[in-house]
Design a protein that fits this description.
Length: 513
């Protein structure tokens, strides 16, 4: 019976490593050109964060195995993760085998939904760079009936996933090279808070796949051997049940020598219950931002070897509800709870600024990613064909794609002339009605109706006012500093984040057998 053998030219892997496989087993092969050498391409896959960067963002996924004990890509290493297929979580365990340094590695399903699954990742030399080849041999359960019923759907999903993976890989590799040319050396040491959140986790995995060192600011027990730095935000109460504040703390010795500090941690703004923010949540939102930032800024000010730059998250909530007014970074602060918090949040960076450290305050708009934030909250109803326009639909919405937000953070770190507030938003803000129509179009679903503001107020209390305010922030300082957006158009950004790009758009050649 024919065997499937993966190996470099003139050298096959030993046959006893693999179970028999017939030629009738479906095979999927995806290839595309990459802008780096095969050795660089393989090295990218070996670094921490590669799995997270390639995971499709439209899927809800969680890693169960400890990344520090996973063994990388070497033979015998295991990866265990779960993927949510409503209403259940499906566990997938894969083992690595067939490891050839600089050439290829293989992962094979040990436990999961498929009857058989083997994925060979090959990094091949090619003119002008390299070729990434993903080759899958798989078998559905209950063949041949399942192949008739679900075979075409599975193939279409594979095309969708690998179009995204190859486009993501190519974009990351190109950006890593650009950053090295812009002065962010591979030896740059980053300290990041909020790495368990959507933005922080994406930033950290991007940096580690580029070979840069990332230290994570964590609460509770921190392990230096895992690149963790202890910190405690401090300030007022941080939960409904606590009545006393805590003193802010940072491990100063561990923070010494960091080149860039990125502060992203903060209590979620969405209300926990209907009716709006409780008193406890308002205190937690304020304390986590203002006191947490002040704790880090004071720690930086006291270092013997401070970072070159502190990049601190803020929000376009700084401007409040401003109608049709175009809001560049020199616009005045607005009114309301979020505006006041944002104002004090940025002011809390002052100790670091006074010590001579360059400080950048990112006023971040609605982040377009299905992994969290505004887009994630809209998706369930829009996917069901029950999407609505919030309020009148005339209010302005300033947004930014997650990839571009990561790019803005990197640009801020690499551009010494940038300091103070920066509007981290797309240059093409949209009205709320246009956002709803565009999302419905991308998902190929109908748009139901408008949700009046008075209904929102009945459900969400004062939070409804923030949900329907009009904020037309524009990225003037990014424009003048030469930043280039990858996804300035809303429809293109949504199609990218939701995996709606075609193999042709991704430069992907696909073979089915």
């Amino acid at each position: 019976m024919p065997q499937f053998c993966a190996g470099s030219a003139g050298r096959n892997l030993r046959l006893h490593q693999y179970p028999p496989m017939t030629l009738t087993m479906p095979r999927f092969v995806a290839r595309s050109q990459m802008p780096v050498s095969a050795a660089e391409l393989f090295a990218w896959h070996e670094r921490p964060g590669a799995f997270q960067r390639l995971a499709p963002p439209w899927e809800t996924l969680r890693i169960l195995s400890d990344p520090h004990d996973a063994g990388g890509l070497r033979d015998g290493a295991h990866l265990i993760f779960q993927i949510r297929k409503w209403p259940a979580w499906i566990t997938w365990e894969a083992r690595h085998l067939g490891f050839e340094p600089g050439v290829r590695f293989i992962d094979e399903q040990v436990r999961g939904p498929m009857a058989f699954w083997r994925h060979t990742h090959s990094c091949l030399p090619a003119p002008g760079g390299s070729m990434m080849e993903d080759s899958l041999d798989y078998r559905l359960p209950a063949q041949p009936l399942s192949g008739i019923v679900a075979g075409h759907f599975l193939r279409s999903q594979l095309e969708r996933m690998f179009a995204y993976r190859h486009a993501r890989l190519r974009a990351d590799l190109a950006l890593h090279r650009h950053l090295l040319g812009a002065g962010l050396q591979a030896t740059t040491r980053w300290a990041i808070s909020g790495t368990s959140g959507v933005i922080g986790s994406a930033l950290a995995s991007f940096l580690t796949t580029g070979g840069q060192r990332v230290d994570r600011l964590v609460r509770g027990r921190a392990r230096a051997d895992r690149g963790e730095i202890f910190w405690q935000p401090g300030g007022a109460a941080t939960s409904e049940s606590s009545s006393e504040g805590s003193k802010g703390q940072v491990d100063h010795a561990a923070l010494e020598g960091c080149d860039v500090v990125v502060h992203l941690a903060g209590e979620p703004v969405l209300p926990r219950t209907l009716g709006g923010w409780s008193k406890g949540q308002r205190e937690a939102i304020r304390a986590s931002r203002v006191e947490g930032t002040r704790t880090i800024a004071r720690a930086i000010a006291g270092l013997a070897r401070p970072p070159r730059v502190l990049i601190c998250a803020s929000g376009i909530g700084f401007y409040g509800n401003r109608g049709d007014e175009e809001l560049a970074e020199d616009a005045t602060v607005g009114s309301g709870f979020l505006a006041e918090v944002s104002r004090d949040w940025e002011a809390a960076c002052e100790p670091a600024r006074q010590s001579g450290v360059r400080v950048v305050n990112l006023r971040i708009g609605a982040v377009m990613t299905p992994r969290g934030g505004a887009l994630a909250s809209f998706l369930p109803t829009f996917r069901l064909g029950m999407g609505v326009v919030i309020g009148t639909g005339r209010q302005w919405m300033s947004w930014i794609g997650l990839d571009d937000l990561i790019g803005v953070i990197l640009h801020a770190a690499a551009t010494p002339a940038l300091s103070g507030p920066i509007n981290a938003v797309s240059p093409a803000p949209v009205r709320a009605g246009e956002f709803a129509r565009t999302l419905a179009h991308v998902l190929d679903r109908p748009l139901m109706m408008s949700l009046p503001t008075f209904v929102l107020r009945a459900m969400m209390g004062e939070v409804a006012d923030a949900a329907v305010w009009s904020c037309r922030a524009v990225p003037d300082r990014l424009r003048t500093s030469g930043f280039r957006f990858a996804h300035a158009n809303l429809e293109k950004a949504l199609r990218w984040e939701l995996g709606m790009i075609t193999p042709e758009e991704a430069g992907l050649k696909i073979l089915h057998a």
